[in-house]
Amino acid sequence: MRKPYYLFAALGIFLLNSIHGQETKLSKEEAVKLTLENNFGIIIANNNIKVAENNKSVLNSGFLPSLSANGGASYDNNDQEATFQDGTQRTVDGAETTRYNASLNLNYTLFDGLGRWYDYKRLKEEYNLSELQARETIETTMLQLFTVYFEVARVSENIVVLEETFENTQNRLTRAEYSFEYGQNNKLAILNAQVDLVNDSINLMNERQTLKNTQRDLNVLLNRELSTDFVVDTTVVFTNTIALEEFLIDGEANNIRMLQAEKNIMINDYNLKAGKSVFLPTIGLTGSYGWNEGNFPATNFLASNTSTGFSAGVNLSWNLFNGGNGITQIKNAKILLDSQETLEQQIKQEIRRDIANAKGNYENRLQVYQLQEQNVATATNNYERSNERYKLGQITSVEVRQAQINLLNAKTSRSLAKYNAKLAELQLLQLTGQLLNVDL
CA nearest 336: which of 130, 61, 122? Predict the structure, then answer.
């Protein structure tokens, strides 16, 4: 007679399958959307773009004039003794003097040796660089996302395979028990099936726990509640070979590291040009509107004085020699520019290597996946034949179990090969700058 705990095991798996079927499906598109909206790293990268955008504003360019308001008041109380030109003398104790002033001052730099012009262009390029850095963060996060997403998919497929294995072992146990009851088999077949069923149960439990852990990893990337249950799309579609070849043609030019290297060269070039502005004069305009009032004691020629009016002027400043600081800064800027150009050559070589390696890895993993597909077909055929022969009593339970294990390994290896190939493709798309431009 069948043991009650096997019934409980079967019931538990049935309930787990029912719960699994009620979970919300998380599509690839929804996962990408949630990541772009909620991922911490992407939020910080977008904030850096906003800072760079503020920096490149005309308000931070130095092209606008400065306007300031000034005001003041003073009070003096002194004992004074004054002798006038005609020899008269006057003494005043506690002589009070009050002065008041207010003014609006305008300053505008007409020309500063083109320093602010190149600084303004540099700030624009730094904004463009921040966009590229944000794109790099997004691409890296997308790779992390799909690495975990496909791991959830792989483990989910493994659970389906393990459930099938558990069910097949359970059926074998049932047949062995019936055969034993009718005297067609000995107790050994039952014991073997019971041991295999326990092992299958343990493997299934462990894989379900792995799935929960991996789901929590994905929820962290999506920045949502860790306990959120979901199922993922296990469908994998590979990029068209022709489109992939076209991506490879311009892959080096579209690579994010190469684009960043080019921007860094432009930024350093503008720094060098801005530094040369120290050799040129600075021309500025000044203007002010002011009011002044003074009240004086008896010893003063005037009792009070009030004046209002405009003033304007042009000034020129030319720092002919500043101790060599400007020359040193320019020399250093040239060295930094040369270093950036050298770094660009290094990056170009590394990108060529990385793209070649990624292309080779992708093609190899795709071939492995195709071979694993064939292996599953062979293992399935072998198991079905072995199972039929087992039913006819032509082979032992050990032999049919080996065929079952071979099928289990073939299916899990195929699943692993499928997602490894897709991840290799995504890595290649990232290196060619197309990861965010294709449907995944």
Answer: 122
Q: Does residue 345 come out as left (phi exceeding 0), alpha (psi in the -120 to 50 range) or beta?
A: alpha
> What is the pLDDT at residue 187?
84
Please list, in sequence order, all residues whose beta carbon lies within 8 angstroms of the beta carbon of residue 137, skipping any fewer than 6 positions away.
Answer: 41, 42, 44, 45
Residue 8, pLDDT score? 43
Q: Which residue has the tokens 């949630």?
A: 34
**Distance separating alpha carbons of residues 279 and 272, to the nearest angstrom:** 12
- Cite the DSSP H helix spans in 256-396: 256-275, 325-391
Strand partners, 312: 287
DSSP string, 221-233: HHTS-TT--EEE-
The model's pTM: 0.85
Q: Which of 174, 199, 167, 195 is nearest to 391 (CA)?
A: 174
Q: What radius of gyration do the chain's Cα atoms show?
A: 41
Q: What angle do CA 153, 158, 164 make, to 5 degrees?
A: 135
Reference 116, options 257, 245, 274; nearest CA is: 274
The enclosing H or E element of 310 equals: strand 304-317
Closest CA to 210 of 159, 252, 273: 159
172, 400 in Cβ contact below 8 A?
yes
Q: Length of the chain, please? A: 440
Relative to beta strand 66-83, strand 304-317 is unpaired
Residue type (1 letter), 310: F
**Lookup: tokens for 417:** 């090969």
**pLDDT tens-place string over residues 301-318:** 667 788 898 999 999 998
Q: Which residues contact 236 (CB under 8 A, 6 or more apart)?
A: 150, 418, 419, 421, 422
Cα distances from 323 to residues 160, 320, 327, 333, in angstroms, run: 78, 10, 9, 18
Domains within the chain, CATH numbers bracketed: 4-38+115-281+324-437 (1.20.1600.10)
pLDDT for the residue 326: 85
Whether 1 shows a pLDDT value over 50: the answer reads no
DSSP 432: T
Helix spans in 182-255 (H): 187-222, 241-249, 251-254
CA distance 26 to 20: 13
The pair of three-digit structure tokens given for residue 130, joined into one six-digit string = 């921040």
* Tokens linked to 37: 């909206």
Q: Which residues pair with 384 in a beta bridge?
A: none
> 411: which 2 tokens?
């299916």
Q: What is the pLDDT of residues 58-92, one digit of tens each?
A: 888 889 999 999 999 988 888 777 776 777 777 77
- For 3-39, the pLDDT digits (tens) are 444 444 544 454 445 444 457 999 999 999 999 999 9
